[in-house]
């Protein structure tokens, strides 16, 4: 398994280098349908007269404000690793209908409502970070967040990494409420993934209890056809093989050697849950 990470790193670097100068299309997670409602993710999002950062500011909207997508503009703005179109929107404010343009990166990738709370998932920024395996290399890392809002008030927020721009081809946000960890009201799952081989996808589980969000260890999955793969998943108490008041991180890796023979590696980590926090057993 010692050769897998260097191979994966070099493969990823090659893809990044090939796409860096030609990556002028928007990240897929920021593609929103016309005539569909969306939510503002970035608090204080500016609404402009035209699709340009230098255009006149007409208004600003807070997190969780509902807007209607009228039209996608072809203009793309890049901030860090986030690339998104501008959108013409309409919204209600002070009893009146207003219109303007918003940058797609300030909209929620996904949102859900449950038990009187609004949950939103979105991307917040890009940071420079040293690679763990190659400290001399600096990579750009996207930071995402999940927010919970009650009425007009932000109750809590947790942040986490989601890889580089190549991992933002697809995103989902769901509520999974049947995992049976004690004293947990809801389990949220935010996912981003890439479309090409060798591009990692990330699953971020977030627990909600007593108006607090608790981020679990992040899961990463990546593979290249039948040459290699690395997969991670959680086994919760209600799942087959699960145990009470704990969740298990299951990891499996496979790579083929130069004689096309499969080498597999499996591992389990158990995290104990004490109804308010978790720790590695």
In short:
This protein has one helix and 19 strands.
Order of helices and strands: HEEEEEEEEEEEEEEEEEEE
Compute the average pLDDT.
Answer: 89
Unreliable residue stretches: 1-23
Distance between the termini: 25 Å
Question: Radius of gyration, rounded?
Answer: 21 Å
> Quick one: how many beta strands?
19
Class computed from helices, strands and strand pairing: mainly beta
Put simply, the count of helices is 1
> What helical percentage do the residues reach?
under 10%
Protein name: SH3 domain-containing protein
Annotation keywords:
single chain; 281 residues; mainly beta; nine-stranded antiparallel beta sheet; four-stranded antiparallel beta sheet; 1 helix; 19 strands; 6% helix; globular; disordered N terminus; SH3 domain-containing protein
